[in-house]
Amino acid sequence: TRIFIARDAAALAVGADRVAGRLAQEAAARGLDLTIVRTGSRGLHWLEPLVEVETPEGRIAYGPVTPADVVPLLDAGLLGAERPAAGHHPLFLGPTEEIPFLKTQTRLTFARCGIVDPLSLDDYRAHGGLAGLTRAAAMPPEAIVEAVTLSGLRGRGGAGFPTGIKWKTVLDCPDARKYIVCNADEGDSGTFADRMIMEGDPFVVIEGMAIAGLATGATKGFVYIRSEYPHAIDTMTRAVGIARRAGMLGTSVLGQGRSFDIEIRTGAGAYVCGEETALLNSLEGKRGVVRAKPPLPAHKGLFGQPTVINNVISLASVPIILDKGPEHYRDFGMGRSRGTIPIQIAGNARQTGLYEVAFGLTLGEIVDTVAGGTATGRPVKAVQVGGPLGAYFPRALFDTPFDYEAFAAAGGLIGHAGITVFDDTADMLKQARFAMEFCAVESCGKCTPCRIGSTRGVEVVDRIGRGIEPEKNLALLTDLCNTMKFGSLCALGGFTPYPVMSAVTHFPDDFVAAPVVEA
Ligand code: NAI
After folding, report:
1. pLDDT of residue 179
2. What is the mean pLDDT of the chain?
């Protein structure tokens, strides 16, 4: 019998290794014929460590499993059995694919994540891998770019810029040397889609990068991974080695005569190095400081050469577009937001994890139905969408559909699609202060609005909190936010006003200081 247990960092953090170790030990002692396969995560984080048993009817899930549960599960005959007796064990979750959180998803990008052995290229092929690259290898570059453009894919790092147009810009550059850079500096708190796919299905990222290389004429790619992701760094490094030995990368990609290779690089812990120009500086061995744009990286990027710099998920979405055709991908979604988006649910939610779905679900459906409300059981007060630089949404805006334009119209952004849930005990003034403080800590220091504005911002919020000239200071905060929004060089200073001003606008009561009681 095959048993599947994730070796994704989120599963490891709650003891997946200990569960797998205990199971291996007990199975050996009992002479059971069990094979433990370590996979990526299914993304059902509140159920990790999830243990799945292969049966003729598909995989049956148990979770969350602790090492102490292993012996009782084996004693009940549940982990080695061909057909586990249904329903009687408290950890029994039924067929994995029938768990509503998973069943209601549309997994295009994450189709293999949690199912395959991440480092088995045979598994990858058996589950549809390499079909996109095989097609691309037989196409002229223009046709590959055209397919990506037609699919409607937009940058999943947060800005939503059309991927096909970015690739076309690089393809049209006459330079002999071009680069593909995969931005895996996933710094947004509460987001983990990049990490999950790198750990759970690394070959899809490699395949997407190789397709980008063939499409633009770039022969070298870099993956820039944040140092806080040691498991992703390890998995990606090993996967690149396997891909090279199998001819998926190298001087003749899939034996078709075109060359593409990848190098893995590690960041050093700066949030701003996720900003593309700071990332390029860091890759060049310089300090991670933002560059002024223009020139765009597509024209003058890494080492001054035309560079496609895309987020992990943007690149990982490309293989299925080439495989199934751009129409297949474009048919999902709404408006100008096409395809699927991996929503990452974190914070005070009952069901946390990754939920890949076509654009268009409302924020309320995501929070109330998919996430099942708060973990504390208290009413939802606010949801921050788009990481630490995203706006706070009150319940009054829960009918906003998950769509780039709809979120912008509501004064927010989708960003990298992380949502963090807060219950009614949250103090939104503290959250606004935190945004300014975060910006002050993480600012690269190159531009004044971000470097100084954030520090002044903390002070102004503190004065409001203490009830000092509240009207004057609220006006000052608004003015400061406008200066940061329109005067900063990059999105760090430019977007910090989103959490701050959305908190002020939607939760004004939290910005009224308690009256000071005179002694
Ligand atoms: P941007 O709008 O300046 O650029 C988006 C992308 O399009 C860039 O790669 C840019 O070079 C490219 N581009 C723009 N015009 C182009 C043209 N005419 N031709 C070719 N390429 C062109 O946005 P930026 O500053 O890159 O990203 C901001 C976003 O980053 C925010 O929306 C935020 O949500 C997100 N973000 C994501 C984080 C994460 O951890 N994933 C962390 C922090 C912010």
Report:
1. 98
2. 96
